[in-house]
């Protein structure tokens, strides 16, 4: 087994503890960095226990750390900076036996880009999205459907932001191609969902998240509780 596979297995093994798994999910879904106090409260554990598990997640490469003063003050008397956590950008995937789907997807994306088939890809993504929407259970909430697909949605004012890009590695290399496909797929999904009427998706990228944001009319917004 390669060192990368060993690292992936070790990282995923860290999530075997239910408290640690809950802390990771809370930090990963948060739109901003999370401090120890907030993480402990969300997980229902003591601050010291949360700090222990959070640092184990950092050691495994699942979380990243930064330091800042939560008071916003600086200089003498401002206090020590707090340790803040956010989801690490790296990915950990394990396949037994080993597979190389990422290599195939990059090759296919390169062929589509070189052939100028962006429009055909977007049309296919929209059709696939519509099919997924129609196949969802009746009355499926668009927010919950997006969450189930790994987008980690959250409300920011009147916009539904997507904290995670499910195609992150591929989008880094083929940004225009993959983001166009992603937008078309979400548009198709909304068209296919019974509760998708009144929702609009558009390009509005987050620095560390998805390239698409959504807005809903009054009725659509009422049907989706705050996250």
Automatic annotation (TrEMBL):
<dbReference type="Pfam" id="PF12840">
    <property type="entry name" value="HTH_20"/>
</dbReference>
<dbReference type="InterPro" id="IPR011991">
    <property type="entry name" value="ArsR-like_HTH"/>
</dbReference>
<dbReference type="InterPro" id="IPR036390">
    <property type="entry name" value="WH_DNA-bd_sf"/>
</dbReference>
<dbReference type="InterPro" id="IPR036388">
    <property type="entry name" value="WH-like_DNA-bd_sf"/>
</dbReference>
<protein>
    <submittedName>
        <fullName>Helix-turn-helix domain-containing protein</fullName>
    </submittedName>
</protein>
